[in-house]
Amino acid sequence: MLQTHELYMRQALNEAKKAFYEDEVPVGSIILYKNKIIAKSYNMCIKLCDPTAHAEMQVITSAANYLKSRYLDKCVLYTTLEPCHMCSGALFWSKIGQLVYGASDRKNGFSMKKEQLLHPKTIITKGVLSNECAYLLTDFFKKKRKLLKKN
């Protein structure tokens, strides 16, 4: 199962790299239904001038439209970064079947809250390709800080 998780997380990382090259925070997500990718996206907050345009929000909407259902209980979401509180709330309401994420987010991740922010039936798998996911984010913010110092 771990090899399968790694395979799909690499797909989410490909999405995160798109964000990186578009100067967006490099987070990528995909949603699977019956082992088929039905939605993929990356952070687009700057591109869309929308603070809610996180990768997870984009794929939730896309998958719900694809399935013509507001519930994603038979789906798996792969995302390169632990979802924030906003995204975990959306995942709660979508009743996502499984969440698989790479890097933990010690500042804004849903696990920092004491109350349950995901549906109780959601299966959570964390730390898949965490080093690769974290490196992309660290590299992005390192470059941002470097640019700020120059200006």
How are the SSEs placed, and which strands pair?
Blueprint: H1 2-21, E1 28-33, E2 36-42, H2 55-67, E3 75-81, H3 85-94, E4 98-103, E5 123-126, H4 130-150
Parallel strand pairs: 3-4, 4-5
Antiparallel strand pairs: 1-2, 1-3
Provide the descriptors you would attach to this structure in a database record.
single chain, 151 residues, alpha/beta, five-stranded mixed sheet, 4 helices, 5 strands, globular
Class derived from helix and strand content? alpha/beta
The low-confidence parts are: none
Helix and strand sequence: HEEHEHEEH
Number of strands: 5
| Rg computed from alpha carbons, rounded to a whole number of angstroms | 15 Å
Helix-residue proportion? 40-55%
Q: Widest sheet: strand order?
A: 2-1-3-4-5
Q: Report how far apart the termini are.
A: 47 Å
Q: Note the main sheet.
A: 5 strands, mixed
- Look at the structure and give the mean pLDDT: 92
Measured by DSSP, the beta-strand proportion falls in 15-25%
DSSP helical segment count: 4
Shape: globular
